[in-house]
Structures are given as structure tokens and as C-alpha cells.
Amino acid sequence: MSLIDTYRAYRARPKAIRRTDLASQWQLMWWRFRKHRMAMLGMILLGLFGVCVLFPEPISPYAPFERNSKYVAGAPMMPHFFEADGTFHPRPFVYGVKSERDPVTLKLRHTRDETKIWEIAFFVKGDPYHLFGLIPLDIHLFGTREGFIHLFGTDFTGLDIFSRTIHACRVSLSVGLVGVLVSFVLGAAIGGAAGYFGGQFDNIVMRIIEFIRSIPTLPLWLALAAALPRDWGPLPTYLAVTAILALLGWTWLARTVRSKLLATRHEDFVLAAKLSGCSDSRIIRRHLLPSFMSYLIVDTSIAFPEILLAETSLSFLGLGLREPVESWGVLLYAAQSIRSVDQAPWLMIPGLFVIVAVLAFNFLGDGLRDAADPYSK
């Protein structure tokens, strides 16, 4: 056999079938996503936040407005497995607390009492609540059968910071989620229509976007939030703040969608769709928008932290959500004074939840952006 015949036989041999050859588009995206370790970490963290959003009552050892008059402005209580003399306890515990007043300043001080050991139990009975507002229960994830436990300490009124922070996950994350959904729909619809049809409609949309974006963001948020009536209840205030953040957050996505549609509306697949009788809305929704889905994913993942930080900032300044609504910004509002930072720095712990949530969404967005195009190197 000649060299040419050998080469032809080598090229004609049956090739081994790889699993990527038979995988669907969604399978390829999932395999690509799993390789992004930081994105997987972000998804796990967001999953934990999702559990807190769904089940804050059983996770929290106390109700958000249950006061402990015996431990006002108390420091975080850390679980232990070893006593001071080195004795090991198979069940975690916290030390008891002794409260006494300073004879000079009359300030109530709390010190650890190593003679008292309060064991931490799981799935204990506590304050009754209604799961999802329907199912009456009184089981909590953890607690103590004697004494009390405050993992994040208490504020100046004796409220448990850990319980309030877990309950605040529901409001803070829901504001970001609803705001992102509304911004995504408005940005994709308005930007898509402007980029696809062009002409006078495109000019009007772009002038509106430029006008909104020319106004400084923070002063605009402050002005609109300050215009809300102070006598509004928790629900109207929540809906108003969410609407304000959503209606001001669609402009960036709209500009991205418009620029992409301007570049792709004259492609061959768009002409083929028109010749097939597809309507303009179907062409935009089923052909043009999916062609740059990775860009939409990136913009959406960036928009969520922005709306979350905006709500936290407004509530921190006292212009957003207010008591009795529980949000991370409302909790941080109590930590804005020098007295709070000096005497009770643990009041700033909810800020760590904001940082972790923002980083988790950024990590997830990076992974989804790479997975949206599984064929790229």
C-alpha cells in the first residue's frame, strides 16, 4: 500500500463519538458552567439566600420583633465545643451571661459566665408562626432550651440581629428581583423596538434615555424617595420604592439591546424570517434577542446588584423602606451613628450580607456569560 493509500485509509476510519457530539445546547451550557468555580460558588450562595427567603421563620430562633430585655446591646454569642478547662462537649453550647450596671456610668454591661452552659439544640420549639402565612408551626432550626442565644448579638432595644437579618433577606432580595424583571422587560421591549424599527421612534427613545441618564443617579433616587408620603404603610412604600428603582434601571439594557439589533437586523436569518411570514415581534423575540443572550445575561447580572445597593442606600439614609419593614438597609440605618459603631459594631453585620449577595450575583453572571456561548474557547 502506497503512502497516499495509507493516508486515505487513515482519514476514512470511523471517528470515536464524543458525548459533546450528542449533547443538547442546554447540556453544553451546563457543562461549561460547571467548570467556572466562582460561578458555582455564587450559585451555592444564592441558593442559601433563596432558602432564607423561603423559610426565614424556621431558620430564625426568634421572631424579628421579640425583645430580650436581659441582653440589650449584647455582643454576638459564639458557639463552643470545649469548656474553659478543655472539657469536650459533643453538643455545641454558649456560655451564660451576667448583667451588671457600671456604678459610674450606669451602663448595663454583659460579661460571660463560664459557670453556666446553655446547650444548643436543633429543631426546638419556640415562638409560633405561620409558614408562608398559612401553616401554623412552632419548630425552629436551632435554639436553647434554657437561657438564650444571639449569634449576631442584639441592638439597643434587645432585638436579635440574626433573626432580623434572615427575615430581611426576603424584602431586600425581592426588591432586587422584581426590579430586575421589570427593567429587563422594559429594556428588552423598548430597546428592541427602537433598534429594529429605527427612524423617528429610535430618535425619541434615545433622547429619553439620554435625558434619564444625564441626571445624577443618587440625587434622583433621593428626590423621588423623599417625595413619597411619610404616612404610607409598609406595603405601599415597598411597592413605590421597587417601582422607582425599576423604572430608572432599564435605560442601560435598552441601549445595549438597541445597539445589538442595529447590527443584526439586516442579517440573512432576519430576511429569511421575514420571507417566512414571521411578524416583527416574533423576529425580535425568537431570533434577534436570543442571538446576543450572553450580553443580556451580563447586563442583568450587573443590574441586580445595582438595584440591591440602591435600595440599601435609600433605606440606610432613611428615605427608602422604613420600620416595620425588614430589609438590610433598614437594619443598617440603626448603625449610622458614631455611638452605634463605637458601642455596638455588630450592628453592621447586615452589610456583610449585602456584600456577599452582590459578589454572588457577579460571579454567577460571569459564569452564565461564558456558558451562554459553549462553543467559544
Summarize the structure.
By secondary structure, the chain is an alpha+beta fold. Helices cover 57% and strands 14% of the residues. A hairpin with a 3-residue loop joins strand 3 and strand 4 (135-144).
Features:
377 residues, alpha+beta, MetI-like fold, 2 domains, 4-stranded antiparallel sheet
Description:
With 377 residues, this protein is of the alpha+beta class. It has two domains: 65-159, no CATH class; 164-371, Orthogonal Bundle (MetI-like fold). It has 16 helices and four strands. It has helices at residues 3-11, 19-22, 25-34, 37-54, 56-59, 161-197, 199-214, 217-226, 234-247, 251-264, 268-275, 280-291, 293-316, 328-333, 338-343, 349-371, and strands at residues 80-82, 88-101, 108-131, 135-144. It has a four-stranded antiparallel beta sheet with strand order 1-2-3-4. The longest helix has 37 residues, at 161-197. The mean pLDDT is 81.
CATH architecture of the largest domain: Orthogonal Bundle
Mean pLDDT: 81
How far is the N terminus from the C terminus? 39 Å
Number of domains: 2
- What is the radius of gyration? 28 Å
What is the N-to-C succession of helices and strands?
HHHHHEEEEHHHHHHHHHHH
CATH fold node name of the largest domain: MetI-like fold
- Top CATH class of the largest domain: Mainly Alpha
Strand content: 5-15%
Strand order of the main beta sheet, please?
Answer: 1-2-3-4
What's the CATH H-level superfamily name of the largest domain? MetI-like
Beta-strand segment tally: 4
Which secondary-structure class do the elements indicate?
Answer: alpha+beta
Principal-axis shape? globular
Main pleated sheet: 4 strands, antiparallel
Q: What is the count of DSSP helices, taking H or I runs of 4+ residues? A: 16
